Amino acid sequence: MILLDTDTLTLYLNDHVRVVRRLESAKEEPAISIVSRIEVLQGRFASVLKAANSEELLRFQERLLKAERELLEFAIVPFDKASGSEFDRLRQSRKHGKMGRNDLLIACIALANRAILVTRNVKDFQTVPGLKVENWAD
Question: Is the pLDDT of residue 96 over 70?
Fold first, then answer.
């Protein structure tokens, strides 16, 4: 399984050439975690709610609606018992460095599904034992 981290998903949504090409040539359909879906939509919701004027409001609303459509292109990998177990295990371990909670949750889903995590944030994710990481952006 190929699992896109939120940063790579965002690059794809913004038509980053390398990421788009890699996705098009991938041997299997990449998926995204429920965490990445939440992160993208939270950002879009916040933009709409913080719009300074009517022009921004309409532009940000269109970005939100576009993101919702584009996210439907990907299978969403939810939490399950295996990812919950990985979460409990990694939370107790200090081997994953000072990784943020959302990244930790994404790593747990990737580990539980034996997925390759595609991220630009290789440095932080490499601290997670057993996690396979690739950077398609640089």
Answer: no
pLDDT score, position 43:
95
CA gap 115, 47 in Å, rounded: 31
Q: Which tokens belong to 38?
A: 């939440």
Q: Are 12 and 20 in contact (CB under 8 A)?
A: yes
CATH number at residue 60: 3.40.50.1010
Interatomic CA distance for residues 72 and 134, integer angstroms:
23
Mean pLDDT value of segment 31-57: 97
DSSP SS3 for 121: coil
Domain count, the chain: 1
Cα separations (Å) of 56 from 42, 49, 122? 17, 10, 34
CA proximity to 50, closest of 37, 40, 65, 60: 60
